Amino acid sequence: MAIAATLKDIANSVGVSLATVSRVLNYDRTLSVSEATRKQIFEVAEELNYTKMKRRTATPSKQLKIAIVQWYSKTKELDDLYYMSIRLGLEKRCEERRILATRTFQNDLSAIDPDVDAIVAIGKFSDQQVSALAQLTPNLVFVDQDQLCHGYDSVVTDFRFAVEQVIDFYAKQGHDQIGLLYGSEWTTDGKLEVTDPRYKAFKREMTARQAFNPDLTFAGDYTNHSGYQEMQTAIAQLGDQLPSAFFVTNDPMAAGALKALHENDIDVPQRVSLFSFNDTTIAKYVFPELSSVHVNTELLGATAVDLVENRLQTGRTTPQLVTVGTELMLRESTRES
């Protein structure tokens, strides 16, 4: 087996300096050297098996393959466009980077190519599901769930600051009592109940203001139907004490809540203001249009791909947590300040 040459070996053979050899092999065209000498350096490097020369002429690396694991089913994804928007952003970035992306729904791991370079998991996953994914590849990125403590890259939304902004907005309008419709759900294997992070942020901030009232909070399951049911329950239970403002933690629930208010002849926003979260297309296709916290779902998906590329290209093993900010979109369901 031939022994790779050093720069010194090449310099001695050609009769030039180490610096000259280095600059020629790095294709430095600003170097004043004859074409004959340049050609001789490359020929000697090839003859002596210079390894850097070999790397420059190596074939391009293979196309990266990413498996997208969506915890929702195809049908449920259409009911909550938030997760679909994240997936589309992810697939768009893969197309831009010429990465081969395949997708599977409801954690169907049997559909994942065993030769994938990385997996991007969208949604919520139990410890057992995370372990199963890790058996397929160590290169995991989670979107919408913080798995940093388990050693995996994660991309999440800044829920706490967003909720504080909504509460500040309502406080400036004079709303001292704010109702909350939030969600609760389980991972698809039924082993982990996922508490709505917006509920935690809401309770923390309202408690700090000495204004948290558990009787004004109602738990659903993020669906349009549960938003409708929980608002009906709030109207029936609270009567004239129904608060003048509600924060609803996703758009489908907010649309259902809006329907319940309409059916009970409760004017929005004059009697009750509504503020939603995620700002999917649903927020703009109801009447009145919903004020909503805008989450850049496309950026969430794209950032996950960027983390995969960085990990694979640099060999990084330290996990990273990327938090994406939000923006308040004020529309007709809230009164003007």
From TrEMBL:
Coiled coil: none annotated. Residues 5-59 form the HTH lacI-type domain. One of its GO terms (molecular function) is DNA-binding transcription factor activity. Keywords: DNA-binding, Transcription, Transcription regulation. SUPFAM superfamilies: lambda repressor-like DNA-binding domains, Periplasmic binding protein-like I. InterPro entries: HTH_LacI (IPR000843), LacI/GalR-like_sensor (IPR046335), Lambda_DNA-bd_dom_sf (IPR010982), Peripla_BP_I (IPR028082). PANTHER family: HTH-TYPE TRANSCRIPTIONAL REGULATOR EBGR, LACI-RELATED TRANSCRIPTIONAL REPRESSOR. This is LacI family DNA-binding transcriptional regulator. It comes from Levilactobacillus suantsaiihabitans.
